[in-house]
Write a structure and sequence with these properties.
heterodimer; A: about 750 residues; alpha/beta; 7-stranded mixed β-sheet; about 15% strand; B: about 500 residues; mainly alpha; 3-stranded antiparallel β-sheet; 17 helices
Chain lengths: ~750, ~500
């Protein structure tokens, strides 16, 4: 009786309860809500960062994505993903997707047009500009976010088909420094490591890398380290990573080069040099040793602000470690002397023989999901397959593989990103084609960058979204399919080639970038040149041929199915190796000490440090540092902002971190609205007080459009990568008398 | 294919089906998390609990997104929250991410407040379960939880929350957040349950754990952690206005005030009009309250929680009172209704009003403590009843206007006490209330004061015909007061968690 009453009065089951009930799903997925039970799973490499995690996309019977989870069987991420990966499908459904080509009408508004008209206008306008102002007057800006097959087709089409002279990618903003450093030091852009090196090291140096936030899944690999590794973090801020490190080295911003040279000197002094390795496999060590003689401990202390005890501890750790690995990210790359700094870390690894063995290496952690694909195949400032435009031999190889007249291949490399924008500013470039990137938000000194874009006669933006700051400024918008709506491959930080799969239909008339490039080739009248690029997978076979004989040779990879079956394959994997078996899951470079440089020797490269380009003083007494805000945000937020779940994981509005001592001096309370000003612009933000910075420094995350209003137009002279992380600013309260000051906080 | 554009558009629309591509069988077992969950169900006297290793958490927040994906939550729905706090450990600055979901408390506020018994604490596992098909969507559990755990789901009109992935744990699978943590910072453990539960070292900066005795264990090897008052830092956002509740509590105050005046007041008062006004205000108020329910058709169960829930008590008492008031005012000659009946009806109204106030007083929101809530609810009843008399009965108008003005002055003083939290005494959420009132809510506050003053002046000095406008202004001011009551009541949250 009582039970019957209880049953009548308390509804323990019903449609709402059923909705959440978990049932065993197949495919090793454990339990999932029954209504989301997949009919199959598709493995696809994530389209955000270069870690290259594999996601298991749960699909319905029609092959449409329902949900996803992290892939437990992939060597990179072993069943984990960061929030961006977990939410990878959400941005595809956003309301501001570009669904049709848009053409700016006479009234200045974007009008929908069909593809035929868009393509005719694209070709007519750009041809007209080229005819009037010469072939160099049209340029393109590409990306590290599209698949390698698309990147290569774009580069080949633009340079060999459309006769475009200058093209670059947004990888200039993240990886150019590492590329230049590796090329000069090793002879090829070859990050030597595999992620297992995180687990195999006994001493891990993270230099300018907030790994926990920027690459959370790589921190997972450190957490699995089996040698009780000492983790040393070199960063001016007490980042999340610095907090969990064994040693934090809070050097003064941009004193990195002095510290690195000082460490080299100290290691030489305490006989920490691997003489045999240096003699057998490197060149230029003696000059380097003489050069670093000037970096005495006194000088290092004075310029870095570090104390003797910490420096000694650092030297001891680097000298004592049997397996020391050096890892760097944007704190190194985005610097006015980034190339030399990256090479200073390479030098440390070479001189101590910490390369080519498990747990060692001078290792650049890449930013974007396909930065490495871009580095090898974007055909922008380097010729396809990691080659050089200047080399007749290289041009001949490419012409043969592509079946092209060699004369179509330019004999000079084009301009870098900053030079292209300056070319627009000087009136030398009149037409610009921007693919999957957002310079109106992401480029330094934003107001100038936007002014430059406005100067163009014709701006084409090819993007997933109509709402990006750059698409808003476009004369023609080409709607692109996004990650998950097309096929291809990415190459991650550790050189692993992995597949990206199509699991969703693109909205409206949006097309994959591959299809758009094919259509442009057709309408331009050069379709025949690219007839062999019939599909992404056909293009992959061309890429294999392009890689043949290069240090990045992956001619031994059979096809996408092979990549899928092996959990991705790292380059190199040559055809002759494949004849002997299958690649191991984790492989590193230079085990034999032979480098792809002249004489097989790696080279010590160095230069005297230079002062940062804008030192805080006078009306701008504070130094602005920039960087990643949270693991739930990505670049200019064109995609991550579309996920309501991710939006809960970071502050909605721009904020600036300030040291409490500076804040007290400036009369700024925690949470107050402030204005951050530099010589180039002003940004409003909320003040966030934290002792994680030193006095005199402020920090703003890069994801908010406000930040680059302040940054300085300054690039590394070798890599031409912008120096985002140091410029002089001041902070002033926005609300003259903060009302909340009246509330008596204790 | 007629044109290349058509060819590519067709190609773009084509998906490969799983059957076509994925014939390979995948293993059905899920491995690797056995060490992250207990081997068996908790022993008697113990319950399951989350254990969060604060030192291992690096702030990637994958737990939030994985919980969302693996539990199939709605687009905007998350069952895990993230707090980020800056602080110091000795001389070292640090930023700590605090991941937090339901704490499956030993004495759950949600369960104690639910008027329809839609919560239960599992006798074996100690998991606080929510019965989705029982829930009427009143959201009272959201107000009752000190940790802002239950979340309203607008699509379903009910509240939903973390159930510790009970469906996974029951089959030896790890909860979604545990599966997704790259550094294994979240695990499931067992802790003492019931009266033996110990929550003394919950986590610094959290609402007082003695209230509900949360089971989650936050573990750190660091000693001497201190952090900034997280509620002071971010820009304060007002809480929801709960307008049906604002309308309801204002009108019910007015109605019960009127019937109390009719029941207990001097004979000079216009009893018939007061009963009528009381019944009308009560009726409209109760109707408005239905708009606050996500699932009003299930509300007939509201009596189930009588033993514990002030909301059940309020609903029953006010329904009884409204019916009595309607009956009395419907009687053509009110004076014929026995005084004892009138007293009884008026007394039930006051008890209903008391229950109504207790609904809020019985939550962990400091802005709703007795000293802030009682003056508003009882003072409001007094003010509005006096205003009705002043507007409706010329004979008693003068005295009533004085009553109204005096009560308003006392009430305003009590309301404005929120602006001056006492340093060191009042907790951060009370300070946040003050910041809200002086910040984003300052215009509303000004309008509330203006309404009260203008209304009181009109009632006292205007000719009889205009006094009805005075009543309207006073009532408007009281309505605004109630909206402020809801909007400024900063909800306690876990350290560093920003309001949604």
């Amino acid at each position: 009786m009582k039970r019957a009453l209880e049953r009548a009065l308390r509804a323990r089951s019903g449609p709402m309860t059923d909705e959440m009930v978990l049932a065993p799903a197949r495919f090793g997925l454990g339990r999932l809500p029954a209504r989301l039970a997949p009919a199959g799973v598709v493995d696809s490499v994530c389209g955000y960062c270069s870690t290259g995690c594999s996601l298991k996309i749960h699909v319905d019977g029609g092959g449409q994505a329902l949900n996803l989870s992290a892939n437990p069987d992939y060597p990179v991420n072993a069943g984990m993903a960061c929030p961006k990966g977990w939410e990878a499908l959400a941005p595809l459904a956003a309301a501001d997707r570009a669904t049709t080509p848009l053409l700016r009408g006479a009234d200045g508004r974007h009008e929908p047009v069909d593809w035929e008209r868009a393509l005719l206008v694209f070709c007519a306008k750009l041809k007209q500009i080229q005819a009037r102002h010469g072939p160099q007057s049209v340029a393109f800006l590409s990306t590290g976010q599209i698949v390698t097959e698309e990147m290569a087709l774009l580069g080949a089409l633009a340079k060999f088909g459309l006769g475009i002279v200058h093209g670059d990618g947004n990888t200039r903003q993240c990886m150019a420094t590492a590329v230049t450093a590796y090329k000069e030091s090793f002879g090829f852009d070859a990050p030597p490591y595999t992620y297992a090196d995180f687990e195999e090291s006994d001493t891990i140096v993270l230099w300018g890398s907030n790994l926990c936030i920027a690459h959370p899944i790589l921190w997972q690999r450190i957490a699995r380290n089996r040698r009780g590794a000492e983790v040393i973090v070199v960063d001016p801020r007490v980042t999340e990573t610095a907090q969990v490190a064994s040693v934090h080295v809070p050097l003064r911003p941009k004193s990195d080069l002095v510290l690195a040279y000082g460490l080299a000197r100290a290691l030489i002094e305490r006989d920490g040099v691997a003489r045999d390795f240096v003699a057998a496999h490197t060149a230029g060590f003696d000059d380097f040793a003489r050069f670093v003689g000037a970096f005495t401990p006194e000088r290092v202390r004075a310029e870095t602000g570090l104390d003797e005890e910490l420096l000694q501890r650092l030297v001891r750790a680097l000298g004592r470690g049997r397996r020391v690995s050096y890892w760097w990210t944007m704190g190194v790359n985005q610097s006015h002397e980034g190339t030399r700094l990256a090479q200073a870390l390479i030098n440390l690894s070479l001189m101590t023989g910490n390369i080519g063995r498990p747990g060692t290496g001078a290792n650049s952690i890449t930013g974007q999901c396909n930065a490495m694909g871009s580095r090898l195949f974007s055909n922008t400032t380097g010729l396809l397959g990691g080659r050089q435009f200047e080399s007749p031999e290289h041009r001949g190889q490419v012409a043969r593989v592509l079946g092209l007249d060699e004369a179509r291949i330019p004999a000079t490399s084009g301009w870098a990103y900053d030079q292209i924008l300056e070319g627009v500013e000087q009136g030398r470039i009149k037409g610009l084609w921007v693919i999957a990137t957002n310079p109106a938000h992401s480029w330094i000194q934003q107001e100038r960058a936007r002014r430059i874009l406005a100067q163009l006669d014709f701006l084409v933006v090819q993007d997933m979204y109509v709402s990006t700051e750059t698409a808003q400024a476009a004369d023609l918008v080409l709607p692109a399919a996004g990650w998950g709506e097309k096929e291809g491959t990415f190459i991650n930080s550790e050189r692993r080639i992995g597949c990206v799969r199509k699991v969703a239909r693109a909205p409206g008339a949006a097309l994959s970038d591959f299809a758009i490039f094919k259509l442009i080739a057709h309408y331009w009248g050069v379709g025949d040149l690219f007839s062999r690029w019939s599909s992404p997978e056909a293009a992959f076979q061309i890429l294999k041929e392009l890689s043949r004989g290069q240090p990045c040779d992956f001619s031994g990879v059979r096809d996408y199915a092979h990549l899928e079956a092996r959990g991705g394959i790292q380059w190199p994997w040559r055809a002759d190796e494949s004849a002997r078996g299958e690649p191991a899951a984790e492989r590193r470079l230079f085990a034999d000490g032979v480098f792809p440089a002249a004489g097989g020797r790696a080279r010590f490269r160095f230069d005297p440090p230079r002062p940062m380009p804008e030192t805080p003083a006078g009306p701008y007494p504070l130094l602005l540092l920039t960087g990643r805000g949270s693991s739930a945000q990505w670049h200019t937020q064109t995609r991550t902002a579309k996920s309501p779940v991710l939006a809960k994981l970071y502050p909605k509005h721009a904020y600036v971190e300030l040291h409490p001592a500076d804040a007290a001096r400036l009369g700024i309370r925690d949470g107050a609205r402030v204005e951050v000003r530099s010589r180039r612009g002003a940004a409003t933000a909320r003040a966030k007080l934290t002792a994680a910075l030193s006095p005199g420094q402020v920090f703003m995350p890069m994801h908010y459009p406000e930040t680059n209003r302040l940054t300085l137009w300054c690039v590394d002279p070798f890599s031409r990568q912008p120096a985002y992380k140091a410029c002089a600013v001041t902070v002033v309260p926005r609300e003259p008398a903060d009302r909340r000051a009246k509330v008596n906080d204790p | 294919m007629n044109s290349p554009v058509d060819h590519f558009l067709t190609e773009q629309g084509r998906l490969q089906t799983p059957v076509a591509r994925f014939a390979a069988a995948a293993p059905d077992v899920q491995e690797g998390f056995a060490q992250m969950i207990p081997l068996s169900v908790p022993l008697p006297g113990r319950q399951y609990a989350f254990e969060v290793d604060l030192d291992a958490c690096t702030g990637c927040k994958a737990c939030v997104a994985a919980c969302h994906a693996l539990n199939g939550l709605d687009e905007h729905e998350t069952w895990r929250d993230i707090g980020v706090i800056s602080g110091a450990c000795g001389d070292e600055a640090f930023v700590q991410t605090v991941t937090t979901a339901c704490h499956h408390c030993a004495d759950p506020g949600c369960l104690n407040g639910c008027p329809v018994l839609a919560y239960e604490k599992d006798a074996v596992t100690g998991i606080v379960l929510h019965l989705d098909d029982q829930c009427i969507g009143c959201s009272y559990c959201i107000l009752k939880c000190p940790y802002d755990v239950p979340k309203f789901n607008p699509r379903r009109g009910i509240v939903r929350k973390c159930d510790l992935c009970s469906g996974r744990l029951a089959h030896g699978e790890a909860p979604a957040c545990v599966q997704a943590c790259p550094t294994h910072a979240i695990r499931i453990t067992t802790v003492a349950a019931g009266a033996d539960s110990d929550c003394a070292d919950f986590i610094a900066g959290a609402p007082d754990p003695a209230h509900t005795r949360p089971s989650t264990r936050y573990v750190t090897a660091r000693v001497g952690l201190t952090w900034q008052d997280s509620a002071a830092g971010d820009a304060p956002a007002p809480e929801s206005a709960h307008w049906p509740l604002a309308v309801m509590t204002t009108l019910v105050g007015m109605g019960t005030g009127c019937t109390a005046a009719a029941g207990f007041g001097p004979p000079a008062l216009p009893r018939a009009e007061l009963w009528l006004a009381g019944a009308a205000a009560g009726g409209i108020g109760l109707l408005a309250s239905v708009a606050h329910l996500g699932r009003p058709l299930r509300a007939w169960r509201i009596f189930l929680g009588l033993r514990r829930s002030w909301m059940s008590r309020e609903a029953l008492l006010l329904a009884l009172w409204a019916a009595a008031a309607l009956a009395i005012s419907g009687t053509l000659r009110v004076h014929d209704v026995a005084r004892s009946w009138q007293w009884a009806a008026a007394a039930i109204g006051i008890a209903g009003l008391y229950s109504s106030a207790m609904i809020y007083i019985d939550t962990p929101r400091p802005a709703w403590a007795w000293r802030h809530t009682a003056p508003r609810f009882f003072g409001g009843a007094w003010v509005l009843a006096a205003a009705v008399v002043a507007a409706a009965a010329p004979a008693a108008a003068r005295t009533a206007a004085i009553h109204c003005g005096a009560a308003l002055a006392a009430k305003l003083a009590a309301e404005l006490a929120l602006l001056r939290p006492r340093a060191g005494v009042d907790n951060p959420w009370l300070r946040r209330s003050a910041r809200l009132l002086l910040g984003p809510l300052r215009r509303l506050l000004a309008a509330r004061i203006a309404g009260a003053l203008a209304g009181a002046v009109l009632l006292a000095a205007a000719p009889q015909g205009l006094r009805i406008a005075g009543l309207a202004l006073v009532a408007l001011g009281e309505g605004l007061e109630r909206i402020l009551f809801f909007r400024c009541a900063a909800a306690p949250r876990m350290p560093g968690v920003a309001p949604a």
